[in-house]
Structures are given as C-alpha cells and as structure tokens.
Amino acid sequence: MKITLDKVVKTFDTFRAVHGVSLEIESGELLALLGPSGSGKTTILRMVAGLEFADSGRILFGDVDATHIPVRDRGVGFVFQHYALFPHMTVAENIAFGMKVSRQRRSREEIAARVQELLTLVKLPGLGNRYPSQISGGQRQRVALARALAVDPKVLLLDEPFGALDANVRRDLRRWLREIHQELGITTIFVTHDQEEALDLADRVVILDQGRIAQMGTPREVCRNPNSAFVTRFLGDANRLEGVAARGAIRIGNTEVIRTAVADGPVEIYVRPGDLVWSAEGQGLPVTVTRVIDRASGRRVLASTESGFPLELDVDVGVDVEVGARGGVLVRRASAYPLRG
Ligand SMILES: Nc1ncnc2c1ncn2[C@@H]1O[C@H](COP(=O)(O)OP(=O)(O)OP(=O)(O)O)[C@@H](O)[C@H]1O
User: Fold this and answer.
1) Domain boundary assignment for the chain
2) Quick one: angle between helices 167-184 and 137-149, nearest 10?
3) What residues line ligand 1, using a CB cutoff of 6 Å?
4) Average pLDDT over residues 164-190
5) What was the pLDDT predicted at 102?
6) Which residue's C-alpha comes closest to atom 26 of ligand 1?
7) CB atoms within 10 A of CB 27
8) Which residue, 37, 122, 131, 146, is most buried by CB atoms nearer than 10 A?
C-alpha cells in the first residue's frame, strides 16, 4: 500500500508541530522518520494511523483520502515503545487479541493456527503460554510485532519499538525486523531518533527538523551528501572546524585543508573521523594529541588544532601515537557550509 502525505500541517493549540510535510512512501518500502526529540516524528505517525488529524493537507492510502477512514478500517498495525502487551493475557492470547475483535470473523481453530504461525515467524515457538512478565524485553517486542501482524495489516507503524532495550538486543532485533520486512513486504514507517538504527534498517530515511523535512534519501545519499549543517551534525560523529573559503579552497589558518565548492567567506567544515588521516610527519593541519582511546577495531585519537578546535580521528591498532605528540591531519572528504552570524 502506497502512502502519500500532501502538505500536511498539524498544530497543537498555538504550537505548530508539523509544517506542511509532503512525502511518498512506496508500497513495500521501509521508511525511517529520523529526527531529534520534538521534531514531529510521532505526530506524523499518529496522523497516518488515524489517531490524530491534520489541520490541513491530505494523507492518501493508495489513491484514497484517508481522512475519513476510521482507525480500525485503515489496515494499520502498530508497535509502540509504550504500547505494552496486556499483562493478564498469555503471549498467545495477546497475539490473538486483534483477530478476536476484528470485523473479519475467524474460527477458534483458525485463530490458534495463525497464532502458531506468527510465533514461528517471530522466532518464539513454544512461548505461547507464558505471560509477558515471563519473557525478556526483546521477546516482548517480538510478541508486540506478532500482535500487530496478526490482522494482516497493509501498513506497519513502528514508533521507537526498540527504544527501551539495550544496544546488543536492539542490533539483533533490527536485523530480525529487516528480515521479516523482506519476507512480508509490508509498507513500514519506523520512527527513531537513533541515526545508526535508521541508516541500518531503512530503504529511505526522512530527517526532520522542527516539523519540516530537512532531507530525505537513501542512507547512502544522505550520508554522502548531507545538505545542511543540521543534517551533518545530526547524522553524527562529525568533527566541526571553522575556516575561510576562497576560490574553491578552504584554509584553516595558513593551511589549505581541502578544495570544495562553497561561497567565499567564513565557513563551518564537517569531517568524519574516518575521513581524517594522521601524519606523524606533520603534513596537513597541525594538531597536538590530547588523548588516545584503544578499541578492538582501532585507535581513536583525540587532538586539538592550533586554534583550539577538538578533533577525533581513527588510526590502525598498530600506529604509535602518544598524548602530547605533535603531528598533522589530512582531510580526505569534508562538507562545508557558509558560517552564519
Ligand atoms: N497532544 C499534544 N499537545 C500539545 N503538544 C504536543 C502534543 N503532541 C505533541 N506535541 C508537541 O509537538 C512537538 C512534536 O512532538 P512529537 O511527539 O511528534 O515529536 P517526536 O519527534 O516524536 O519527539 P520524541 O522523539 O521526543 O518522541 C513537540 O514539541 C511536542 O511537545
């Protein structure tokens, strides 16, 4: 089911949470809505679900305006971080719940068979008789997904479904969700404020800033070509430096650090740690090492430029570098934006 948002606006009292968002989610696509707290992600999802109504603009399910389709007829399945399982029902009863209250009548045998099928799909066979308190947080979210899938939704809406879980479990569930999505091909909108999660999972990401779309594209597109300082900062892990652009070259102090197209004048420059190369011989931008953090994957070097900007870069495990060492860094790739103010 394709979903279209056409200039959707939502205001709470006097506060405008969503400012004319237009967006098309293709049938079978897994789209992530990514943005900081308060950027309007949940409000957009709730409007698609029919739990909230737009002040203006339209939401289409296929070619049909969804405004007047009640929640239960929209064919959407939800998994919300706080949309807990019913504690007094077993896992199987939780999964069966939607089928029992659905307009589509099913026999007891049909429901039981479907519950078993779903338990297998979410890789929890044999746990049907447990209560939610008797399974782990990660297992609970799998059950929540099975419950959402039970009524054969045309659209799946997931709002920070793994938000409360620890990093390893999140990573496993992410992979698992991707597999389930591939298997079932249901149009899915996934809300998260975690850029790694969004980039890892989604076919396309929409980055929101204060109720507006800052950028949308495939994970590769937004990572390679962030269109603003906001997106670059939000995608994370970027060093920020200041310099001056003139005729396509950016200089910091006396050093030309990179050539890139940006208007002449003061600029802010964003560089990922992996795009900086350490030079013990002092080539490039002069820096002093302030800290070295050893990790299984390599060494993270923290350094400071002559004008006092902190920098982080990665070097191989075998590279000798010590606190207090002076050297240089070469910039392989960077994004630059005119410095305002
Ligand atoms: N029912 C409401 N009444 C008033 N203001 C609201 C209501 N719901 C949301 N808002 C406001 O609208 C803005 C967007 O909220 P929303 O929950 O959509 O953001 P979000 O991006 O999902 O944030 P988070 O990641 O914190 O959940 C926020 O400033 C919020 O305070």
Assistant:
1) 3-231, 237-338
2) 20
3) 12, 15, 17, 35, 37-43, 193
4) 88
5) 74
6) 37
7) 13
8) 146
Side chain identity at 119, as an amino acid letter? L
Q: Going by C-beta distance under 8 Å and a sequence separation of 6 or more, which residues neighbour residue 160?
A: 80, 81, 191, 192, 193
CATH architecture of 237-338: Beta Barrel (2.40)
For 149, the 3-state DSSP assignment is helix
pLDDT band at 163, cuts 50/70/90? confident
Q: In ligand 1, which atom is closest to the CA atom of 191?
A: 22
Gap from CA of 38 to ligand 1 centroid (Å): 5
How many whole angstroms from 310 Cα to the centroid of ligand 1?
34
Instruction: Give the span between the Cα atoms of 17 and 1, in whole angstroms.
Output: 26
CA distance 275 to 301: 13
Task: Give the pairing of strands 155-159 and 76-80.
Answer: parallel
CA distance 319 to 65: 60
Distance 12 CA to ligand 1 centre (A): 9
Instruction: Please state, in angstroms and as integers, the Cα–Cα distance from residue 73 to each residue in 68, 154, 193, 289, following that order.
Output: 10, 11, 29, 61
Q: Which band of pLDDT confidence, cut at 50, 70 and 90, is reported for residue 277?
A: very high
Q: Could you give the CA distance from residue 11 to residue 236 in angstroms, rounded to a whole number?
A: 29
187 - beta bridge partners?
A: 155
Please answer whether residues 198 and 34 qualify as being in contact, where contact means their C-beta atoms are separated by less than 8 angstroms: yes
Residue 78: its pLDDT value, please?
Answer: 87
Give the tens place of pLDDT for each residue, 77-119.
988 876 678 999 999 999 999 888 777 788 889 999 999 999 9
Q: Which ipTM did the prediction report?
A: 0.94
